[in-house]
Amino acid sequence: MIQFWPHNLDRYTTWPMFARDIGPDSGSALSTQNLYGVHPFYMCIEADGKAHGVFILNSNAQEVVTGPGPHLQYRTIGGRIDMAFFPGPTPEEVVNQYLQHIGFPFLPAYWALGYQLCRWGYGSLDAMKTVISRNQAAGIPLDVPYADIDYMNHYEDFTEGDNWSGFPAYTQQLHAQGLHLIVIFDPAVEVDYASFQRGITADASFIEWARDDQVPHSIQDQYPMAKNTRVMLGNVWPERNTAFPDFLDTKSNTNDWWAGEFAQFHKTLPFDGMWIDMNEPSNFDTGTYSSMEEQLASAKLSCPISGPDSSLERPPYPTQAVYQRDGEYLFSKTLCMLGKTARRSRNFYDTKNLYGWSEARATYQAIPQVTGKRSAVISRSTFPSSGRYGGHWLGDNTARWEDLQTSVIGVMEFNMFGIPYVGSDICGFNGVSNEELCLRWHQFGAFSPFSRDHNSEGMPDQDPAVWPSVATAAKIALGFRYYYLPYLYSLHYNAARYGHTVIRPLFFEFPKDEETLEISEQFLWGSALMIAPALYQGQSKVHAYFPSDTWYSLQPETYGQKMFAGFNDVNAPLSSLTPVFVRGGFILPRQAAQTTTTASRLNPFEVLITVKTNAASSGELYYDGGDDLIPNDDIEQHPRVHWQFSFTSSIVGGVFSGNCETCSTAVKPPTLDTIEILGYPSAPNFSGFKLDGSSVTLDMSKSSYDASTQKLIVSSKNFISLMALKKKFTLSFSNN
């Protein structure tokens, strides 16, 4: 991982890629260790601002060396070289071309864009209830409570522990409040209970040993269900040995069994989304052996390091993924490379990096059978095209300022990888967080597409309600997020339908501005909103960069104020909104914020129009059922309304118009009741507004013009219909 952009090409640096259960190390000056996923894709920005990208499709252990010249050297130890070149020439076009190659991202349910609260270490259901209740009482917007592995019976998938009796009833209570529940599932299934037996009965495939004589019967024979199989048994969270489903099964048996387990458990616990963890896949304490006798005497999974069976475990060049760790092998913390996958047609050596991707695909495809509604899948391990099936959190980070800082780059990078539904564990997962860090992380995390507070077992609580100052900051930041969720959801629609990014580095919009190439602590929502969070301890101002364009402040203290191009020191108080700015020439949809997305979606729409001199403003609104399934996974078939807006003005007056690009009568959006315009230079004639040629009576208690700030607000109840029958509208007005 890198801490600042761009990559330092004045030195030789080796970047290994091999999916591994290891968290980010932001505390080191340079950390090149391979993390949870593999993305062999890079983008280059040339001196003239033009960009290109290169993708190398390969699922083996691999590495890239960057160095002076500049140059890039690629190595892999298996498979084939399948390269694709994307000419751009803009950074956004490079990503768009890449996503056309690997597939567009999924569209999450609307509720999945709400704030999410989680921790590992709820000792009981009552402990979870206490945390959720105190945050609701504090007025924190909240949509998705989580349950980590604590809820399971001895960490077995698809079970409920004794301390969690009443969990289904509590879930129904959450649903009645407009909330949704996500729970965790690990891929490894214990081999002595009903889920595994149903898998065997269904002829599901599991990762297996290559030959019968490799099977360690000292382990295998303990389990009647696995005794006469070649299933490779490992050790993860459950108390006894586990099997790893083969999601690359060339038949549908494994994925069908997996979906069936979700569906059966859903009848007991009506969860709404799936969080899949440990899917590199991770195995605890993988050992070694030099002789079969040693293997048979071991009580845990061990892999050969000598003899003819060791050729995949100790290849001639094991890549930097192994070289940088003394005494470790490719199989360390995972399964033996000689294992068989794809129903015994492939070696695990070749497919390991695909495991998280294949589990995410199987889990995503199970959703129609499980919940019957659109949902969200969150996966730790990812691979190119994982974004088609789910989102990603940035892993087991640490409660320190360096991890907050690198989270900004992480969120932007995964948008380039085609996984826009991404975020970090707010406040930090490992270690003890603190009030200021947790506050600043919420101020940043409220602008991550996936916004979740999560921490580790044994660590003190760090939910916003723990500290009054954090609760206040979280309410402000999340209140802004919920206010602009229609805009964020429309960006996700653009990602899903057209293959665009949601979060963007500044250089995506301003590639010819060399200063933007080194801005790694600011980012954009789409093209219009720029966020410049405070990321350092004791920081009270942000030295923010404003590319040459029209920018308006959305901070309450300076709302509507134009910002000068170049670097500006902007205030970043602990008790106010994150520094956020809107670009001139855009139209952003929004809705008044409630404490759930369920309630917010019922409010009338508003739009924020930002004026840019001698240019029209434009924007769009995407609205659908929020959690209805997308027919055949084809968004073109999805019932929706997709409005495209434009605004033009002159010394005479202004014209705001809308065109419904796609309008389904099955979708019933609220009316558009309020229009706010920043940078409007003249007072309008409030009695002269006309909608499609007919006079409009405005609510003057909510309509106003401020000449000092050039801010115009017009409002009327049931002002503009956005229903499908409308198709088009034009609102015109003259100036005084």
TrEMBL record:
| Every Glycosyl hydrolase family 31 C-terminal domain range | 499-588
GO MF terms, alphabetically ordered:
alpha-1,4-glucosidase activity; carbohydrate binding
Q: Where is the Glycoside hydrolase family 31 TIM barrel domain?
A: 105-491
Matching entries from InterPro entries are given as: Gal_mutarotase_sf_dom, GH, Glyco_hydro_31_AS, Glyco_hydro_31_C, Glyco_hydro_31_TIM, Glyco_hydro_b
Keyword Hydrolase included in the entry's annotation: yes
Spell out the family assignment given in the record's similarity comment: Belongs to the glycosyl hydrolase 31 family.
What's the protein name? Uncharacterized protein
Source species of the chain: Caenorhabditis remanei (Caenorhabditis vulgaris)
